[in-house]
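A quick aside before the break. I want you to see a complete sequence-to-structure record at least once, exactly as it would be stored in a machine-readable document. Don't worry about memorizing anything.
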Amino acid sequence: MSARTWAWATATAGALLSLAAAPAGAATPAPTTNTVSWAASYGTAHSDGQRWLQKTESPFSSDLVVSGKLTNSGEGCYSVWTQFTFDLAPLPAFKQAQLCGSGTTDIHLSQSYQPTTTGTVFICKGTERPTDCGAREYITSWPTGAVSAVQ
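That is the input. The structure line, written in tokens, reads:
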């Protein structure tokens, strides 16, 4: 196995394990430090919330915790998706929440995070595939000093 294949396989396996470890609807830990707001909109749907880094047992990574709400003020179904890239290896998009008709639902996720991780959140019309979607909003860019405040 080449070094590039091994690195991609390791990053993919780690990311998938961390997604499986924090199912939707699981209790989200309270932030221990600075939080950063995030928001995305598309059609009649809007989502927003807070994100932060949570210290883990590993000295090399943290968990990115994203918490918020998806609100739809109209008819039809909308869903919130995330997509992460680890060391230039993009993973598929994962649905985090869905809502049909007007109302509000919670969004909670925890994802392994390293300095080379990039991730986006976006809203799509429908619930099956991320094809008719709004703009992707980065959830891994940090204001000056925010990452150094991880506890």
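Two observations worth writing down. The CA atoms of residues 44 and 74 lie 5 Å apart. Residues 3-23+36-149 form a domain with the Immunoglobulin-like fold (CATH 2.60.40). We'll return to this after the break.
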